[in-house]
Amino acid sequence: xxxxxxxxxxxxxxxxxxxxxxxxxxxxxxxxxxxxxxxxxxxxxxxxxxxxxxxxxxxxxxxxxxxxxxxxxxxxxxxxxxxxxxxxxxxxxxxxxxxxxxxxxxxxxxxxxxxxxxxxxxxxxxxxxxxxxxxxxxxxxxxxxxxxxxxxxxxxxxxxxxxxxxxxxxxxxxxxxxxxxxxxxxxxxxxxxxxxxxxxxxxxxxxxxxxxxxxxxxxxxxxxxxxxxxxxxxxxxxxxxxxxxxxxxxxxxxxxxxxxxxxxxxxxxxxxxxxxxxxxxxxxxxxxxxxxx
Length: 293
Prior knowledge:
The protein is an alpha/beta fold. The protein has a single domain, classed as Vaccinia Virus protein VP39 (Rossmann fold, 3-Layer(aba) Sandwich), CATH 3.40.50.150. The protein has 11 helices and 7 strands. The protein has a 7-stranded mixed sheet. Strand 4, helix 5 and strand 5 (157-168) form a beta-alpha-beta unit. Helix 6 (175-187) crosses helix 11 (257-270). The longest helix has 23 residues, at 39-61. It is globular and about 55 Å long. The N and C termini lie far apart (86 Å). The relative contact order is 0.16. This is SAM-dependent methyltransferase. One of its GO terms (molecular function) is S-adenosylmethionine-dependent methyltransferase activity.
């Protein structure tokens, strides 16, 4: 018996197979969620560079000693630890939505002046006008409602106190991520929807200024902070992307082994490798500060 299949049905069938194969290879961007859970995997990816930015950030803020601080979205404790080491605070409260990160920070930072709590940046478990400084490092763009987070930071500090934050310049000089996404998008056009440079337009001077001004803060300023991100070799650059912490690593681990290998070699071919195999890039953060009237 002969089976006849119309051209229309054949085309539909083939398209179905193609779409199914595509979905087996890659997960749709809308189905991916940023993962922030394992401190030991976050540290080599971003934590080590955040610590460098934190020092310059605190120097810029110039908050007096013996002040009560809040670190919103404290993560693995990079900014909190720098406050302890350089700011001589009376106390620091670190709040993060990830239990894994707060546990990592507790294990790493043993100080009688610090306590870590699991909490929501948009509804801080802190009394109104009870602190002297509220800061946040590399978090605001990941909060569902950044204006609410900044408003909460302003609420918990006393009049005259500083509210400040820093975020990566994803679309510009955060080079370790730019090389990754430029290569990823060249190989997979859908990856552009995951690129932080596209996802987070807030991470630019004008939007940051407007965000803080709209929260009722005065004397709002934005400042670039550049730090060197030096890698001893390509593996030192690439390995942290395999930890799955954040958008770029999350995308990398979602790929099949073959597709991930193609991406790896594409990035390797585009990075500025020195003769000894080392890689020297720049990571720029935008810092913003304001004062509660």
